[in-house]
Backbone:
């Protein structure tokens, strides 16, 4: 039999709705709380910085939400993305397992992030907003939003953590090429930035400060809103286009995964691949395991506690009921920058607490060994974040071999690592701490 490597969908088969897992959660999560009143947060709390439609989605309990035509149209620039059977990796591992991956690295930004950047820019544009602000660490989210904002005619100001701005010029240049204004944070543009610069002029900056600057700018101008790249329900919702496609593709391959795997920062690509499959599990259609994979150095799922905590490091956001290491936790500066986040968001935390998903952690050296093996077998150089998912897929495939069982494994390749080659250089030079 001929081996089919890539399971593709036509543009006509692209999903027309996102999936909102809130509707199917067996135990409703606790509400987010307004940080001042400690009462359940209301849509009014979020409207000063987010578009109305996004706030509606944040609180929605409808299971399916239509993807606007304009968003579908832009998705078609690179979606549907391929589902690939990793035959070469299977062979290298000499495993009876079937390994599939969903390739989200094919977008303009090289990751899954445009899946939410595009609808966020769209809804803000439709509401008459002129400008968006956001923060970015390594630049993955900022670059995705830059293209989306430009497409809908919005200005975009990105506060980029100063040390990344200086040390990672390529994503900054991607953002500038797509027309965004990129400002090293802390900056003189906001009261928060000026205060920090006055106190510590040489600070390398932090994601928390960059969030505060972006939010401050959005609050102080009615024509400006803020956009966020992960953690919140509406972001996870937009990413489910990944898993909805993968579900159709697995059906075409005439297999269903026994285990679905995603790397975990704030949970958006994990939710994207996993939630549509979890619907099958929660509604009793198909039993499967779902694993979220985090860095050993930032282990909120495997070692954090479930409690109310802020979504950001400064304490501006609503309080979220979630697994957290505490919002003041400073993770080691591993190269998988997108996974250095202290909390886990509401829906994923509830699912973990109730035992519907599992969590695993991987040390940094294992992720780079994995990244190199994947590059040398499947050809794609993975983002250090995505390599966490691959590492877990390999662990599962090795276990299948030990147990002499066929098992079908699906993981999400959240992005490529072509802008992260410096990290691979450090790895080859033996300079990476585990
Ligand atoms: C941002 C990012 C992540 C982590 O964010 P999630 O919201 O957890 O998905 C993972 N992989 C890549 C390639 C990213 O850009």
Residues:
């Amino acid at each position: 039999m001929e081996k089919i490597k890539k399971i593709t969908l036509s543009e006509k088969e692209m999903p027309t709705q996102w999936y909102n897992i809130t509707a199917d959660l067996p135990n409703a999560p606790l509400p987010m709380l307004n940080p001042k009143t400690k009462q359940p947060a209301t849509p009014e709390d979020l409207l000063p910085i987010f578009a109305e439609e996004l706030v509606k989605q944040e609180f929605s309990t409808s299971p399916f939400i239509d993807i606007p035509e304009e968003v579908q149209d832009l998705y078609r620039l690179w979606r549907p993305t391929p589902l690939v059977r990793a035959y070469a990796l299977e062979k290298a591992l000499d495993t009876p397992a079937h390994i599939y991956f969903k390739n989200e690295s094919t977008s303009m930004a090289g990751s899954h992030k445009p899946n939410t950047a595009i609808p966020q820019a769209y809804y803000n544009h439709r509401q008459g907003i002129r400008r968006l602000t956001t923060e970015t660490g390594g630049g993955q989210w900022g670059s995705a939003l830059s293209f989306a904002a430009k497409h809908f005619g919005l200005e975009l100001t990105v506060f980029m953590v100063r040390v990344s701005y200086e040390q990672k010029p390529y994503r900054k240049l991607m953002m500038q090429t797509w027309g965004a204004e990129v400002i090293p944070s802390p900056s003189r543009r906001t009261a928060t930035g000026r205060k920090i610069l006055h106190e510590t002029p040489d600070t390398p900056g932090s994601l928390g400060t960059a969030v505060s600057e972006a939010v401050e700018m959005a609050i102080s101008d009615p024509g400006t809103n803020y956009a966020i790249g992960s953690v919140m329900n509406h972001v996870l919702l937009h990413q489910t286009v990944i898993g909805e496609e993968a579900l159709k593709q697995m059906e075409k391959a005439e297999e269903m995964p026994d285990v679905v795997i995603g790397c975990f920062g704030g949970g958006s690509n994990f939710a994207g691949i996993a939630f549509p499959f979890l619907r099958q599990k929660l509604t009793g259609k198909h039993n499967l395991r779902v694993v979220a994979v985090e860095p050993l150095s930032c282990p909120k799922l495997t070692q954090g506690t479930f409690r109310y905590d802020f979504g950001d490091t400064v304490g501006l956001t609503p309080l979220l009921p979630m697994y957290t290491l505490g919002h003041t936790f400073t993770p080691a500066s591993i190269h998988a920058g997108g996974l250095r986040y202290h909390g886990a968001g509401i829906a994923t935390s509830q699912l973990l607490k109730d035992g519907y998903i599992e969590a695993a952690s991987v040390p940094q050296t294992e992720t780079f060994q994995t990244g190199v093996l994947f590059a040398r077998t499947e050809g794609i150089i993975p983002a250090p974040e995505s390599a966490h998912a691959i590492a877990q897929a390999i662990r599962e495939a090795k276990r299948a071999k030990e147990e002499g069982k066929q098992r079908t494994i699906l993981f999400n390749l959240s992005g490529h690592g072509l802008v992260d080659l410096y990290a691979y250089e450090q790895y080859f030079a033996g300079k990476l701490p585990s």
Remarks:
- The CA atoms of residues 367 and 388 lie 6 Å apart.
- The first strand starts at residue 6 and ends at 7.
- Residues 111, 113, 140, 230, 263-270, 338-339, 383, 385-386, 414-415 surround pyridoxal-5'-phosphate (CB under 6 Å).
- The radius of gyration is 20 Å.
